[in-house]
């Protein structure tokens, strides 16, 4: 596996592969890989001959006071794991190269970003995501880009970004990868104490409860929201939102119908957790 840190070197590598007729799959990450990331890499290997994983803790998607400085990092461990998955290139640019002093451009997907779900409490987050992905897509020009479905709003933003800017690129979603006890895998799970992690299991339990109630005929979002909120609070979680939304527009659902997405955000201690499911 090759590790590339320079932007122009990454561009040159990708251009050579394209000239040779090779197809490229990109897995954008912030590193500190867990099994969920490895699933994305393995899926990428089935989608294209050449797999590139970007490892970049993107500073512009963190707001002041968030965990940019504390975000877990271990490049050597990540490189070993990526190599074991057959990744061809690990792209690790420096922040100063991605965002030099002259950098002044941002990309915003309106209607899906600061207005709904995570965007209400993190209003600049998805602009940071869309901006860094625009740079990565322009540098690497992948044929496929692979993302996990745990960040459901992010996936909706990315699909709109690719569609609206006419990239010749397919966005591929991978189902949420969970721990044996049901907790959605996340690099931030390491922040939690044993007790906080146990409390966090209320999130996947809430999803299962919602599925049961909808299967039994519940279609009223408000009634179900109140019941799920009570369960999260009883577990000691501070919930941020419990929303039933359209999977494409992220508009609030007036009634729960097949395909409606239940999206949750809550804190266990100081760790912010998200999860979702289709109903």
From TrEMBL:
Beta-alanine binds at residue 61. HAMAP family: PanC. Homodimer. It comes from Desulfurivibrio alkaliphilus (strain DSM 19089 / UNIQEM U267 / AHT2). Catalyzes the condensation of pantoate with beta-alanine in an ATP-dependent reaction via a pantoyl-adenylate intermediate. Pathway: Cofactor biosynthesis; (R)-pantothenate biosynthesis; (R)-pantothenate from (R)-pantoate and beta-alanine: step 1/1. Coiled coil: none annotated. Belongs to the pantothenate synthetase family. This is Pantothenate synthetase. InterPro entries: Pantoate_ligase, Pantoate_ligase_C, Rossmann-like_a/b/a_fold. One of its GO terms (molecular function) is pantoate-beta-alanine ligase activity. Its EC number is 6.3.2.1. (R)-pantoate binds at residues 61, 154. Keywords: ATP-binding, Cytoplasm, Ligase, Nucleotide-binding, Pantothenate biosynthesis. The keyword Nucleotide-binding applies. ATP binds at residues 30-37, 148-151, 177, 185-188. SUPFAM superfamilies: Nucleotidylyl transferase. Signal peptide: none annotated. The reaction proceeds by a bi uni uni bi ping pong mechanism. It holds the Pfam family Pantoate_ligase. It is found in: Cytoplasm. PANTHER family: CYTIDYLATE KINASE/PANTOATE-BETA-ALANINE LIGASE (PTHR21299), PANTOATE--BETA-ALANINE LIGASE (PTHR21299:SF1). It comes from the Bacteria. It catalyses: (R)-pantoate + beta-alanine + ATP = (R)-pantothenate + AMP + diphosphate + H(+). The active site is at 37 (proton donor). One of its GO terms (biological process) is pantothenate biosynthetic process. One of its GO terms (cellular component) is cytosol.
């Amino acid at each position: 596996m090759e590790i590339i840190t320079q932007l122009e070197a990454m561009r040159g590598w990708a251009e050579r592969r394209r000239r040779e007729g090779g197809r490229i799959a990109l897995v954008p990450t912030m590193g500190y890989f867990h099994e969920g990331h490895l699933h994305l890499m393995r899926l990428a290997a089935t989608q294209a001959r050449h797999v590139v994983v970007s490892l970049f803790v993107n500073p512009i998607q963190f707001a002041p006071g968030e965990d940019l400085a504390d975000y877990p990092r271990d490049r050597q461990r990540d490189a070993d794991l990526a190599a074991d998955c057959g990744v061809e290139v690990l792209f690790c640019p420096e922040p100063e190269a991605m965002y030099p002093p002259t950098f002044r451009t941002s990309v915003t997907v309106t209607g899906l970003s600061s207005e709904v779900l995570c965007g209400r409490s993190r209003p600049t987050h998805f602009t940071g995501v869309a901006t860094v992905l625009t740079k990565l897509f322009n540098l690497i020009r992948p044929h496929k880009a692979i993302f996990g479905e745990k960040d459901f709003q992010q996936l909706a933003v990315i699909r709109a970004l690719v569609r609206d800017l006419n990239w010749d690129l397919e966005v591929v979603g991978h189902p949420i990868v969970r721990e044996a006890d049901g907790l959605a895998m996340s690099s931030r799970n390491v922040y939690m104490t044993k007790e906080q992690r146990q409390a966090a299991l209320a999130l996947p339990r809430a999803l299962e409860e919602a599925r049961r109630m909808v299967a039994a005929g519940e279609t009223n979002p408000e009634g179900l929201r109140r019941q799920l909120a009570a369960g999260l609070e009883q577990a000691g979680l501070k919930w941020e939102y419990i929303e039933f939304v359209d999977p494409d527009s992220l508009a609030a659902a007036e009634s729960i119908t097949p395909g409606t997405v239940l999206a949750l955000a809550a804190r266990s201690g100081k760790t912010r957790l998200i999860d979702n499911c289709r109903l």
